Amino acid sequence: MFYHESVKLGVELLINQYLINTKGLSDNQQLYCVLFSPSDSCEVSLDRHTAHRKLLLSEDNRKVTVVTGEQPYPDHPNRFDHWTQLLCCNGLTGRCYWEVEWKGQVSIAVTCGGIRRERVGDDSRLGDNDKSWRLDCTDHSYCVCHNKTPAAIHAPSSSRVGVYLDWPAGSLSFYRISSDTLIHLHTFTSTFTQPLYPAFGLDFGSSVSLCPMEHTLKHRI
């Protein structure tokens, strides 16, 4: 992707103004760090109708934890029946930014609503098909995956991750958050034609919490 020199100069001014950490990043990565605004932050909530039965949701649908026993969720065609995954309620088609706190081993993802819910090979796993994109997080590493094509990311781990979807531009970016600083991890590019849903996959003993977004992005920059 190529950018006009005036855009690059504007980015450099923004970086200097907001003290965004860009050490070791390419020009494109620096651009992805800054080209969104506080008005892009959005609140999302977990969708109980999609949750695997070994996922326990908080009453406010803001936190999910893997448990050993199955929950008495009613049958629903949108429920995952093999992978311990779930979607959020919100189908997004604009510019949206959200943050999550995680513990254990989790996948932070975005998917089209048409992803398979029943196991057919690995097609129902987030990131293992052409309908979804994921960031795997552990205490020691990150890895991204789309359409069964993984790529390791060599960066220190952080328990908080920011996700920025620019649906019109066809970009999906992940950031680790350290000391209130957004540090770019990876950006997927594609042509999006359907609403995209924030989604999560969790291993045993793991949890994900959606962070309240009021004033959060404004505070970050």
UniProtKB/TrEMBL annotation:
Q: Which GO terms describe its molecular function?
A: zinc ion binding
The record ties this protein, via CDD domains, to:
SPRY_PRY_SNTX
- Quote the cellular component terms of the Gene Ontology held in the record: cytoplasm
Keywords from the UniProt entry: Metal-binding, Zinc, Zinc-finger
The record's annotation in SUPFAM superfamilies points to:
Concanavalin A-like lectins/glucanases
Entry protein name: B30.2/SPRY domain-containing protein
Task: Please state every residue range assigned to the domain named B30.2/SPRY.
Answer: 24-217
Which InterPro entries does the record associate with it?
B30.2/SPRY, B30.2/SPRY_sf, Butyrophylin_SPRY, ConA-like_dom_sf, E3_ubiq-ligase_TRIM/RNF, PRY, SPRY_dom
Q: Name one Pfam family in it.
A: PRY
